[in-house]
Amino acid sequence: MKRTFFVLALVFGLAACTTPQMLVDQQLTEQSTPMQVSGRQGLLINQKISFGHYESEKVKRGWTRSYELDVFLAKLQDARDKYSFTLFDNNRGAYTVDAVNHIRGADLPIGRFLGGNTSPALQELASFTVQTKDLFAASLYSNSRQETWHLMLMNRDDTRKNGRYAGLLTNEQQQNIEVLPVRKLQGAETWGTDIIGYEFRQEGKPLAAVEVINNGRVWIDPSLDANMQLVLASASASLLLQQELELPANE
């Protein structure tokens, strides 16, 4: 993320004295208060991330575990750029997130990862996954292990070139939450094609948003039930912790 931070800070820092902020859907800002993120930058040793009433345990890099029924994790257990963390809310509800960055599209078992999903977002994303060399994916497990969500995100280059959707968050009951890229800053025109955050939408309604520039901020609709808020917080945290979705030039 360092290159993106530098470019945005340089360009917009010269244009204004205030820190640039992502443009968030008015419907969401009227209902929620932005939560400032702590622990995102700096040393990765003993890293923890927190915002609002959500806080993680220490982020574990390079997890090695896999679960008997999770073909996705079993297949990618030896992948590079992995991290895992557990995020708690103030009622000690928790989701454990296992994430893998820089996945080659051909290595991601889309059918088993996202099930029989037929959403427009998945149809668009799936059309790009085979040829891409760079995907991000994560599985989110409730502390009871009775509920699992999956997140798939296209790399920034593919999202810039190919489509409207950045990714999809879905569960085994095929509840679909679209992940859309955000490119606009408050009070400014779109800055090129750089993605500065993501918005989570379900049936056109904004549920949450995460800003991935600067230290990061998160918005979550407080009218959602506590479990759904925690799911969205966990997905947001996984995006805040990921490295920039671009492979080195020599790959």
What does the model show?
The chain has seven helices and 13 strands. The protein has 251 residues and is an alpha+beta fold. The chain has one domain (2-241). A twelve-stranded antiparallel β-barrel has the order 1-2-3-5-6-7-8-9-10-11-12-13. The longest helix has 16 residues, at 226-241. The radius of gyration is 17 Å and the shape is globular.
Put the structure in a nutshell.
Helices cover 25% and strands 29% of the residues. The chain has 251 residues and is α+β, with helices and mostly antiparallel strands.
User: Strands of the largest sheet, in order across it?
Assistant: 1-2-3-5-6-7-8-9-10-11-12-13
Indicate how many domains the architecture comprises: 1
Number of helices: 7
Oligomeric composition of the shown chains: single chain
Structural class: alpha+beta
Q: Using only CA atoms, what is the Rg?
A: 17 Å
Q: Secondary-structure element sequence?
A: HHEEEEHEEHHEEHEEEEEH
Number of strands: 13
Give the fraction of residues assigned to helices.
25-40%
Average pLDDT: 77
Shape: globular
SS strand fraction = 25-35%
Ranges where pLDDT stays below 50 over 5 or more residues in a row are 1-16, 244-251
Largest sheet: 12 strands, antiparallel, barrel
End-to-end distance: 18 Å
